[in-house]
Specification:
This protein has 239 residues and is an alpha+beta fold. The chain has six helices and ten strands; from the N terminus they run αβααββαββαβββββα. It has a five-stranded antiparallel beta sheet, with helices on both faces. A five-stranded antiparallel beta sheet has the order 6-7-8-9-10, covered by helices on one side.
Length: 239
């Protein structure tokens, strides 16, 4: 697990296969607890994260035919943790059903209501692709955990762009084009989704709004995941 923690701190996304049975929640809690411990996340925050990942894994088992993968990568000053499954069309509600609600979504929403509280609203669900081979489409339910991670020394724009391209190709994102100059590189994904690689970070341009967001270089895994998400949404006509 120390190697996984070093890989994550170095900008990689780490992933494990989860069993498609009742042991999935316990396996997810154990793996994530070991990872966050190796990253020296405070014990209380790690316990909360273990509780949340167990709820998310259980929901995937009960409502999506089973969790496929447990994910973790660095983003927004912390660690994003998630459970991927293979049913992109069957997404949980982004506004969890309150405790005590008696409707058809009650069982689905109850665990996610806990996630919403403990994650302080920093959670969500989106289309994606599996990370463990096969380029399987699906969705990921994720939340963020605060963590103090070391600064990451990154290469120049051209090297960073090639790194991002390789990550996207490994996820089955086709047609990625890299253009570069001495101080700037561009990764063109699809349908106007562009990622500009500059010294120290990324600028991601959203094709629908034309707006851009900026991310530091150490969050390359988060940038790759964002690009995979948009690729799935744009190329499959999802809203």
């Amino acid at each position: 697990m120390r190697q996984a923690a070093r890989d994550l701190a170095g900008g990689a996304a780490v992933a494990w296969a989860l069993p498609a049975d009742r042991t999935c929640a316990g396996v997810a809690r154990s793996l994530l607890g070991d990872l966050l411990g190796a990253l020296r996340v405070p014990r209380e925050s790690a316990r909360d994260a273990q509780m949340m990942i167990g709820e998310v894994a259980t929901n995937a088992l009960e409502h999506a035919g089973g969790p496929g993968e447990l994910w973790a990568y660095r983003a927004s000053g912390g660690v994003v943790c998630g459970v991927f499954d293979r049913l992109p069309e069957k997404a949980p509600p982004l506004r969890p059903v309150p405790f005590g609600a008696q409707d058809l979504m009650c069982e689905y929403g109850r665990g996610l209501a806990l996630v919403d509280v403990y994650a302080k609203g920093e959670w969500g669900v989106h289309r994606s692709r599996g990370q463990l081979g096969g380029h399987v489409p699906g969705k990921v339910v994720w939340f963020r955990v605060d963590a103090e991670l070391p600064a990451l020394r990154c290469g120049g724009p051209a090297e960073t762009a090639r790194n991002l391209r390789d990550r996207l190709c490994a996820r089955g994102v086709n047609g990625v084009i890299v253009s570069q100059s001495p101080r700037l590189a561009l990764v063109s994904v699809c349908h106007g989704l562009d990622v500009w690689c500059r010294a120290g970070g990324f600028q991601v341009r959203e094709p629908a709004s034309g707006r851009s967001c900026v991310r530091p270089a150490e969050e390359i895994a988060a940038v790759a995941e964002h690009a995979v998400r948009r690729y799935e949404e744009l190329c499959r006509g999802a809203s």
